[in-house]
Amino acid sequence: MARKGIVYVIDDDQAMRESIDFLLTSADYEVRLFETAASFLEASGSIAFGCVLSDVRMPGIDGLDLLKRLKAGRSRLPVVIMTGHGDVPLAVEAMKLGAIDFIEKPFDDDRLIGLIETAIKQAGDEAKSEALSQDIVARIQSLSPRERQVMDGLIAGMSNKVIAREFDISPRTIEVYRANVMTKMQASSLSELVRMAMRGGVIKD
């Protein structure tokens, strides 16, 4: 795979596809070309993470329809839409449907490369962030009912002794539960445990 990532180019204009292919390959991207949105969607179930660069006006499934279908399928692929001059209303609609950005043809090469670079980075960061949140939720769910009670006490600012009185358990036993909580949550400190609880939805904003 190319160092900077993969770009899926969808455009019914062969000359435009070839031009973008040359530009992005020169910029160290792996480029995959599609003449229609339909052919891209057929392949989308097995493709790796990358940026979609799609024209907005195409026969059959156009750029807006493509965005709607990707959104319905909960796709994580960032999409940059290419529009013709005067297609700003369509571009705005595309942004509402989830496009990261749009660029008007004819476009500046450096601007296009910059947009794709930003799109891949932002979407990659969001995907990592969501994966971490899901992992934290799974850690919380792995706690036993008593461990969860102890965690709730800890993030509420209660001391071991107060938690022990609350549940009529010895402070020593609470220490054991506390150690289990920190281990299962992979938290190295109480402040980290609090941050995890916030991210995992235990503490509401």
Key traits:
9 helices; Arc Repressor Mutant, subunit A; alpha/beta; 205 residues; 2 domains; 57% helix; Rossmann fold; transcription
Q: What is the architecture of the largest domain at the second tier of CATH?
A: 3-Layer(aba) Sandwich
Radius of gyration: 24 Å
Largest β sheet strand count, sense and barrel closure: 5 strands, parallel
- Calculate the terminal CA-CA distance, rounded to whole Å: 40 Å
CATH class of the largest domain: Alpha Beta
Q: What is the overall number of helices?
A: 9
Average pLDDT for all residues: 89
- The shape is elongated
Oligomer designation = single chain
Total separate domains: 2
**Series of H and E elements:** EHEHEHEHEHHHHH
How is the CATH topology of the largest domain named? Rossmann fold
Strand-pairing-aware structural class: alpha/beta
CATH superfamily of the largest domain: Response regulator
Share of residues in helices: 55-70%
Strand count: 5
Please tell me about this protein's structure.
By secondary structure, this protein is an alpha/beta fold. It folds into two domains: 6-129, Response regulator (Rossmann fold), CATH 3.40.50.2300; 142-199, Orthogonal Bundle (Arc Repressor Mutant, subunit A). It is built from nine helices and five strands; from the N terminus they run βαβαβαβαβααααα. It has a five-stranded parallel β-sheet with strand order 2-1-3-4-5, sandwiched between helices. Helix 4 links the parallel strand 4 (79-83) and strand 5 (101-104). The protein starts with 5 loop residues before the first strand and ends in a 6-residue tail after the last helix.
